[in-house]
Amino acid sequence: MTVGTGFRKMSTELYPDKHIENMSILFKYFLAWFPMLVIAIMNGTLRDLGYKRYMSDTAAHQVSTFTLIAFFAIYVWYIIGKIPPVSNQQASLVGLLWLVLTLCFEFGFGRLRGRSWETLLSDYNLAKGRLWVLIPAFTALAPYIFYKLRR
Fold first, then answer.
1. Which residues fall within 8 angstroms of residue 129, CB to CB, at 6 or more apart?
2. DSSP 83-118
3. Up-side HSE of residue 39: CA atoms within 13 Å toward CB?
4. Contacts from 127-130 at CB under 8 Å and sequence distance 24+?
5. How many CA atoms lie within 13 A of 79 on its CB side?
6. CA 92, CA 141: separation in Å to the nearest integer?
7. Could you tell me the pLDDT band of residue 23, with boundaries at 50, 70 and 90?
8. Who is most buried in 6, 30, 36, 44, counting CB within 10 A?
9. Mean pLDDT lowest for which of 9-13, 22-26, 63-67, 95-99?
10. Is the predicted pLDDT of residue 15 greater than 60, yes or no?
11. DSSP string, 122-148
């Protein structure tokens, strides 16, 4: 038996409601991820209908990456204030949850739309100026960063 497993078992035996409380908080964070989809769609719309015609496709995607990070930062700051994690570990778990949801949506929806794996992965090619990898990285790290900043 590992130390982590023993501690988890001991803590749920001593505090059986703690497990339910943790699941309830994680469910709230699960629901809090969905507005991030709306924010991302609005950001893409802003790019496509706004400034994309004034610059190259690569430059427009680079600008879009940074504006999305800014929009996400505002939103995550708000969420972490509204539903504060109880620990570093919980904040990290929220980031991991949001990362998994983001990647599952991005690749799942992309594949459903008929996009090839090569096309989907091309947005992560830093050598070609594609900065999209910063979005999942920020999504994963933001809950922990803002948890620490709000303490």
1. 58, 62
2. S--SSHHHHHHHHHHHHHHHHHHHHHHHHHTT--HH
3. 20
4. 128/58, 129/58, 129/62, 130/58, 130/61
5. 26
6. 7
7. confident
8. 36
9. 9-13
10. no
11. HTT-GGGT--TTHHHHHHHHHHHHHHH
DSSP secondary structure string for all residues of 67-78: HHHHHHHHHHHH
Domain boundaries, the chain: 27-150
Q: And the tokens for 145? A: 């960063």
Angle between helices 16-49 and 88-112 in degrees, nearest 10: 50
Cα gap 143→76, rounded to integer Å: 7
- Report the distance separating Cα 134 and Cα 19, nearest Å: 33
94: its two tokens: 């929220």
Dihedral-angle region of residue 114 (phi above 0 means left; psi in -120 to 50 means alpha; beta otherwise): left
Structure tokens at 136: 């999942």
Q: What is the pLDDT of residue 117?
A: 95
